[in-house]
Amino acid sequence: MSEKSFTLDELCTLTDLTKRTVRYYMQMGLVERPIGETRAAHYTSRHLDQLLRVKQLTEAGVSLERIREVMTGGETPVPARQRRPGSIEVRSHLYVAPGLEIQISPEEAGMTPEQVRAFVREVIQAAERVMSKDNVGE
Predict the structure, then answer these.
(1) Which of 47, 69, 44 has its CA nearest to residue 57?
(2) pLDDT, position 75
(3) Beta-carbon neighbour count of residue 33 at 10 Å?
(4) How far is CA 103 from CA 40, 110, 124, in A?
(5) Is the pLDDT of residue 18 over 90?
């Protein structure tokens, strides 16, 4: 069974990218060149997969330079969200004791709600231990 092949028009329709963008990605080395040349050129599912991956990464805010590294076997980036004026971030403030407060961004820390609760319990217990030692005069 032969592999499915696509024309440039079909590839553009499947990826929702313009011909110009697809050609630019090839010129940059992000996507392999077509098989064949001129009107006989065709693309395979490998080209489709490469274009979809590049599109996914660009939409996530990854630079084309970094995408090139990823496409040539580099580690997949986890794009950091850039703070911009007017951006909103959700953070939790943990009140431990007078003058002692911790700010937590579970999403940024990659913590599940269960991990946040466990962390909070541990911090409170540690603060209580430290503060009770100071009161005893040890």
Answers:
(1) 69
(2) 63
(3) 12
(4) 60, 14, 14
(5) yes
What are residue 42's DSSP bridge partners? 35
CA-based max dimension of the chain: 86
- DSSP characters over 69-129: HHHTTPPPP-PPPPP-TT-----EEEEEETTEEEEE-HHHHT--HHHHHHHHHHHHHHHHH
Taking each helix axis from N to C terminus, what angle separates 45-59 and 19-28, rounded to the nearest 10 degrees? 90
Q: What is the pLDDT of residues 56-93, one digit of tens each?
A: 888 888 888 888 887 877 665 555 556 678 766 667 77
Reduced to 3 states (helix: H, G, I; strand: E, B; else coil), residue 46 is helix
Question: Counting Cβ atoms within 10 Å, is residue 34 exposed (0-12), middle (13-18) or buried (19+)?
Answer: buried
The DSSP bridge pattern shows strands 100-104 and 92-97 to be: antiparallel
Cα 135 to Cα 9, 99, 128, 130, 132: the distances in Å are 76, 16, 11, 9, 5
Q: What is the dihedral of CA 15, 21, 24, 28, to 10 degrees?
A: -50
